[in-house]
Amino acid sequence: MVTVQLYPIAPQLTQFVRRIWTLDLALGGNAIDLRMTADCYPHLVIRCERSADGLWLPGGDMVPIATLKGVSTQSITYKMSPSYSHIAVSFYPNAVRNIFGINAYETVNQLVGAEHFLPKETVEQIIVARSHTERAALLNTALMTAIGRRNLQPDRRTADFLFNHKDAYQKKLTEYNVSERHFRRLFYCDVGISPAYYKRLYRFEATLASIRNEAINNLTELAYRFDYADQAHFCKEFRAFTGESPYAFIKKDRVFEDAGTVERPQGTGHLIGASM
């Protein structure tokens, strides 16, 4: 059994938090591969007490029980216990700096202990909480407290580009009244990567969601739908962000889905291994 559940987000957090969600596995057997793709959304992941020893790095070291994962530009495969439980927050790309007060580039491709961002006692309360509902409430409170403590106002130019970036960012510079160099610097601090690289990751995320929620029979059609030059360009980009060809990726996803009954809200195609 694999269960994914979404939880309410406090109104004060909606400009920074995409989802609060839980993952519970009860599959039996040996440890399974947890494939993480490249991902433009940072995550805070806190495992429940019974899963304290449930996740391992590729080299065999244990992943800390509570971590913040910044924007990821590469894929990585962990080992996960078949009996596993966590609660996670999926953030918008500019949230790390605006909530926790650190430059986002410091967290790119990193797993950072959550105790650097949240009070240790709060993290411990979330770990040992009696239910996911209680954990979600504790997380909402902790994140609102962090925002209130810093009282930062998001840079409107960065925020606008994140949500309205169909054009190249150079076309927005006059509207933003900022030089290209200055905007790139702002974006790098807020998001951790360049505007151009963000657009590549965002397009990959959209393509991946389509693959996981639709029956894909024609990669060329999919490539053109998401404005890749051609199928070869799409496959090259997909392999760069997942480590696999699209067909190999789809095949492995189906094998995992068939390994146990999957319960998840409709539309949450990124079950495990990327952003929800």
Explain how this protein is built.
The structure is a single chain. By secondary structure, the chain is α+β, with helices and mostly antiparallel strands. It folds into two domains: 2-154 and 254-263, Jelly Rolls; 156-246, Arc Repressor Mutant, subunit A, CATH 1.10.10.60. It is 39% helix and 18% strand. The protein contains ten helices and ten strands. Strands 9-6-4-8-2-1-10 form a seven-stranded mixed beta sheet, covered by helices on one side. The longest helix is centred in the middle third of the chain and has 19 residues, at 132-150. Mean pLDDT is 86; it is low at 255-262 and 266-276.
Give a short summary of the structure.
With 276 residues, the protein is of the alpha+beta class. It has helices spanning 95-100, 120-128, 132-150, 156-163, 173-176, 180-191, 195-213, 219-225, 231-242, 246-257; strands spanning 2-7, 17-26, 32-36, 43-47, 55-56, 66-69, 76-80, 83-91, 111-113, 262-263. The model is unreliable at 255-262 and 266-276 (pLDDT under 50).
CATH architecture of the largest domain: Sandwich
Task: Indicate the radius of gyration in whole angstroms.
Answer: 19 Å
Bulk shape = globular
The number of strands is: 10
Instruction: Quickly name the level 1 CATH class of the largest domain.
Output: Mainly Beta
How large is the count of helical segments? 10
Q: Report the sheet with the most strands, covering strand number, pairing sense and barrel closure.
A: 7 strands, mixed
Question: Can you tell me the CATH topology of the largest domain?
Answer: Jelly Rolls
Strand numbers in spatial order across the main sheet: 9-6-4-8-2-1-10
What is the N-to-C order of secondary-structure elements (H for helix, E for strand)? EEEEEEEEHEHHHHHHHHHE
Stretches where pLDDT is under 50 for at least 5 consecutive residues are 255-262, 266-276
The oligomeric state is: single chain
Alpha carbon gap, first and last residue: 18 Å
How helix-rich are the residues, as a percent range? Answer: 25-40%
Structural class by sheet pairing and helices: alpha+beta
Number of domains: 2
Average pLDDT rating = 86
Strand content: 15-25%
